[in-house]
Sequence to fold (645 residues):
Amino acid sequence: MGSRRHKNKQAAPPSFDEFQAKQDRKAKRIEERTKRSSNDVTDKKSSKKQKTATDDHEKQHDHHKEDSENKHSKHKHEKSHSSKKHKKHHNDDEEEENHEFPADLPEVDLEELSKAKKSLFDDEEEVDEDLQGEFDMEQEYENDEDDNVQVKSMFSDDEDFGEDELEDLNAANMESLSQKLDEEEAEEAEQAEQELVQANQTQPRADVLPSKEEEEMMGSGPQDLTSVRTRIIEIVKVLEDFKTLGAEGRSRTEYVDRLLKDICEYFGYTPFLAEKLFNLFSPSEALEFFEANEIARPITIRTNTLKTRRRDLAQSLVNRGVNLQPIGNWTKVGLQIFDSQVPIGATPEYLAGQYILQAASSFLPVIALDPHENERILDMAAAPGGKTTYISALMKNTGCVFANDANKNRTKSLIANIHRLGCTNTIVCNYDAREFPKVIGGFDRILLDAPCSGTGVIGKDQSVKVSRTEKDFIQIPHLQKQLLLSAIDSVDCNSKHGGVIVYSTCSVAVEEDEAVVNYALRKRPNVKLVETGLVIGKEGFTSFRGKNFHPSVKLTRRYYPHTYNVDGFFVAKFQKTGPSPHDDNQASAKEKEALAREEAMEEGIIHEDFANFDNKEDEKYINKSKKNSLLKKGINPKSSGAPKK
Ligand SMILES: C[S@@+](CC[C@H](N)C(=O)[O-])C[C@H]1O[C@@H](n2cnc3c(N)ncnc32)[C@H](O)[C@@H]1O
Fold:
């Protein structure tokens, strides 16, 4: 399983900006190539016609084929050679000692990029590096001002106004080297392209697909992964221009079937999941998606604005030897970590709750939710609390966030994060969220970050490749639909600014995304989809494999690892426009609470000062606890050194 990944432990991936810029440049190149190749087609067609099966021609074919194969393997050899060079270089770096890098790389040379990135940072932080060699702890603090200058150049004083400068600076850093890399890559691509064009002209296309005998032999044992990969690329090429490149007598289905088998062999998916994911994209984009799943996404952290500012946090982490940069201009709280001399999950800043390790994609549904101060918000499936704590921070610890999760065990990590990050406006509860309208309703906003199949996070959980079955894509969407209806029925349509429901998953499967949203639109005509407000993301599908969805489903947003270098993700935002016929109680939550309080008082369950703290009564417990804590630290509570009460 995961045969490719097994061989392909990657070094640090590129930054989001690098990734995006590269995607744009690539799209441009493809466009240019398409233009060129459409001119070539006419030539090719006529040359194809000329290919009568004379002996002379066949000899010529063989000769050309050999020639091109030699070139191809030479090209590969060169590539592998350069990869080896990288590897050696990396071995110098202790942290990446064990990182293998295969010769048969995907087209994005991530190692090279990340190395370039690193050296760029090294250049940029020349002052820092010089200082580092001489620094002892004291100097580190004495020289705080110098460091401040350097970090300030990355993180402007006023983050609201400093984003552009910040981006410029990073762009300036990146530009020259990434341009060089791009040129090299473009040259390589050009060379490969020429070889393929030559091969197209001289090679009968049927060669791409194995013969019957070859198929039989392939079934009898493990295959050479390099030739499987070559065939994947060639088949994708044929499928992208089947009319011109498809061999006579071979159907498109034959190519697709072979390609899917090769994808399973090379990347380690079950045939079922490979096909499901393949169907989401064009063949070439599907290949990019599968490739991107072989690579872990960048490590990212979210600044906890309840405790610090991103600029200050970055300063502290840089001082500890963390190499970082802001994620992108769509977030003011995210930082991408390139490498670190300290464990990122155990720094004093981490323990003090100044940040949380959080995938960049996880910021998106909270940004879409757009929490306001003093609102009542429900996070229906909240553990371990990455999004709850972000919501709480955006509300500046005002109002109330109900953080619910059906899994009691998982609420432990939820509570731990809430405590560490200092979220004091949060109530943790443990219900099956389908019960929610009955428990309490009338929320201003609800986030449903639904349990899902995880097809968007294969990069970090490779087991998804083989563990997901057809049954999962029936059962999970069923639960998601029930949860979404429950979310809709628990929101107050009369909320002043809210009445909002955000639905998100870390799956790219249409059954869990657009189909669930479409179901909710059908079942609850009192909601409509609205813009998510997210500046990145691809439009949701309005039709898929013969199924049509409501046109507004286009307002939902999809994220893929190969397009944004974030986990695969889906976000939909609803506005509730009227009460649900299914609302358990259409009164607002406050009215509901008042009603409940009245009833409870009538029944004598609670009295006026219920839940008030009795300070006198509590004092002895507080003192006892202080005493115990001093004893645990080995301090005699009665000694003069003990802190005064
Ligand atoms: C994708 S995770 C949530 C991640 C979380 N929002 C965060 O950002 O840290 C989905 C969660 O849904 C919970 N869950 C599953 N079924 C549920 C249900 N019926 N009601 C409430 N929570 C449920 C799971 O225990 C899991 O913690």
